[in-house]
Write a structure and sequence with these properties.
By secondary structure, the chain is α/β, with parallel strands linked by helices. The protein folds into three domains: 5-244, Alpha-Beta Complex (Spore Coat Polysaccharide Biosynthesis Protein SpsA, Chain A); 266-331, no CATH class; 347-573, no CATH class. It has 19 helices and 16 strands. It has helices at residues 18-27, 41-51, 68-81, 101-110, 128-145, 162-170, 180-190, 214-233, 235-244, 262-294, 296-311, 321-342, 357-364, 379-390, 404-413, 429-440, 475-483, 517-536, 568-573, and strands at residues 5-11, 32-37, 57-62, 86-89, 115-122, 158-161, 195-202, 351-352, 369-373, 394-398, 419-423, 444-448, 460-465, 468-473, 487-495, 498-507. A seven-stranded mixed β-sheet has the order 3-2-1-4-6-5-7, with helices on both faces. Strands 8-16-15-9-12-10-11 form a seven-stranded mixed β-sheet. The radius of gyration is 27 Å and the shape is elongated.
Length: 574
């Protein structure tokens, strides 16, 4: 059946935004179903006046208020009879950013078997009680679906596959009121229906009326308890389905979903502030253990790296699962250190190496700098400390689709930060101009050199790394040649309770001669890999690339790839 979407607006005591919502959905070409869920006569009359006579708008009514879930089911049944394949649910209170409607529909078109739901990005208008309630529901959703993948199960802005949803409802007694949004999503996940998320801004309008009543807390609590015991009953089936899914260990690093939730990150910050790093690590150990046990792909990547590090003489004994778990715990500690740095809990006296002459020259020259770093240690510590102390602008090029929640927490807790996160999937002329201006203004530009491009077909250079060829991005060297500024190499490693900066010149200026450009870029990539390996020996467990680093996305080295870096110096000097 061809893709035929419609939209539903369930409404109970919400009419002020109804006309505008209908108009916006009709602009997208969507037939609209409005369900009057047993409103009082005067409200029902206003709904009738708004809907009747409008082309493409159908009004359905309940004689008595039956609940939001019941209204959605009424609309689903009607949509099925009218041969619609998908139904977009929109709340009637005007909270959602309807400019993302077309994107939600397009995602549903591309993945017709999936539920496509908004992931709310709340502003300061959200009531704290609502936010805390959502955190609790996020926790139970994660437990009941055996997944910590971030999904806001309470958001009323989503696209359902009509027949799949009706079949799921027919097999279960699903909540008809406030618990519907969460329960239907849990049961769809139990049925292996994919869930696709799209970040969408959500604002609570001033004077917004809420249909949420105190008794709804009881209903939702009963629903969570019911789903929990049902989950335990079907646990063997759910685990079997989970472990039988096809594993693909060659995925690109950017395709690995960020695990965990915003609530978890906020809890980590609060624990750190209350108890300090050591107690916080102890409290977070069970969470890290959960990720270790369930993150098969990340665990496999950790063991692969550790074995290479052991063969290179970086580890005293052959690594096993204990060493891999220590690797995970080190990563958890590094995440806490990032929070501590950005929130002012780590200061310059906690950092050694700040007297380095190269660092001093870079800071006092009045010029900007282009800095290469990587996912070794915690370079964000020195970026945060320098930013919060000197207020100098730091421009960090990141792939923020995998770090949007982490960055949001940092920004919320660190209003004074002068760091600008620039999301970059590929370097274009606009990005180069922006960064050139930043450097001319005395700002720093920081870029990692250890992750290959996000876009398919991105340019890479292969270099020996821990005894095997590994791909490195060409983008940093191309960008450095455009900016025409000195390039530095920066790492910040944790040694015991202190941090140590390693800052050294990488190149006075990167020049890529026409006709010999590829060879020179390859030589710089080898230089980067060599220096990376030097610092890796100082802290081998502080390597935080939890994917198949040597063959990401199925990449393979060229047949004529040199097995060592012996020719690097000659290539750079020729």
């Amino acid at each position: 059946m061809p893709f035929r979407p419609c939209a539903v607006i369930p409404t109970y005591n919400h009419v002020s935004a109804l006309n505008a919502i209908i108009a916006r959905l009709r602009e997208e070409g969507l037939p609209v179903i409005v369900v009057d869920d047993g409103n009082a006569p005067e409200v029902a009359k206003r709904i009738e006046e708004i809907c009747d006579g409008k082309e493409g708008v159908t009004r359905l009514s309940h004689r008595k208020n039956a609940g939001k879930g019941a209204a959605i089911l009424t609309a689903l049944d009607y949509a099925s009879r009218m041969n619609f394949t998908h139904m977009l649910q929109v709340d009637a209170d005007g909270q959602h950013d309807l400019s993302r409607t077309a994107e939600l529909i397009e995602l549903a078109r591309k993945q017709p078997d999936a539920v496509v739901t908004a992931e709310p990005i709340f502003d300061d208008t959200i009531p704290k009680a609502r936010l805390i309630g959502r955190w609790i529901t996020h926790f139970w959703f994660a437990v009941n679906t055996l997944s910590l993948r971030k999904t806001d199960s309470m958001c009323g802005f989503r696209v359902y596959p009509v027949e799949t949803t009706l079949q799921t409802v027919a097999r279960a007694n699903i909540a008809r009121r406030m618990g519907f949004d969460t329960e239907i999503l849990v049961r769809l996940r139990w049925g292996n229906v994919p869930v696709v998320v799209l970040p969408v801004r959500v604002t609570y309008p001033e004077g917004n009326y809420s249909n949420f009543k105190a008794w709804d807390n009881v209903e939702i609590s009963r629903m969570h308890a019911k789903l929990f015991f049902l989950m335990l009953w079907r646990l063997p089936v759910l685990l079997a389905a989970r472990w039988s899914r096809k594993r693909d260990t060659s995925r690109h690093w950017a395709g690995l979903a960020e695990r965990g939730s915003m609530a978890g990150l906020w809890i980590a910050v609060i624990l750190y502030r209350l108890f300090g790093r050591r107690v916080c690590l102890v409290l977070l150990s069970p969470i890290v253990l959960f990720f270790f046990l369930t993150g098969g792909e990340q665990r496999h990547a950790s063991m692969g790296y550790l074995r290479r590090a052991w063969r290179a003489g970086m580890l005293p004994r052959e690594p096993g699962w204990r060493t891999s778990f220590r690797h995970f715990m080190t990563f958890g500690g590094a995440a806490l250190d990032k929070f501590a740095a950005w929130t002012g809990n780590i200061s310059l006296p906690d950092v050694d190496g700040t007297e380095d002459p190269h660092l001093y020259e870079s800071e006092t020259s009045g010029r900007g700098s282009f800095v290469l770093t990587g996912h070794l240690g915690n370079p964000e510590v020195i970026r945060a400390v320098a930013s919060l102390t000197n207020r100098s602008r730091v421009n960090v090029l990141v792939h923020t689709t995998n770090a949007v929640r982490f960055n949001a927490v940092i920004n919320r807790f660190s209003r004074s930060s002068s760091v600008r996160m620039i999301q970059v999937t590929e370097i274009g002329p606009e990005t180069a101009i922006l960064l050139q201006t930043a450097i001319e203004n005395g700002e720093s530009v920081v870029m990692v050199g250890d992750r290959v491009p996000v876009s398919e077909g991105g340019r890479v250079s292969w270099a020996p790394f821990l005894g095997e060829p590994a791909p490195f991005p060409q983008g940093p060297y191309i960008l450095a040649s455009i900016l025409k500024w000195p390039v530095y190499f920066l790492f910040c490693l944790r040694h015991g309770s202190r941090f140590r900066i390693y800052f050294e010149p990488f190149a006075e200026r990167i020049v890529l001669p026409r006709g010999d450009r590829e060879r020179v870029i390859n030589a710089y990539a080898r230089q980067y890999a060599e220096r990376l390996e030097v610092y890796l020996r100082k802290a081998p467990l502080q390597w935080f690339n939890f994917f198949d680093y040597w063959r990401p996305g199925g990449l393979t080295p060229p047949a004529d790839m040199p097995s060592s870096a012996e020719t690097m110096e000659q290539e750079l000097s020729s």
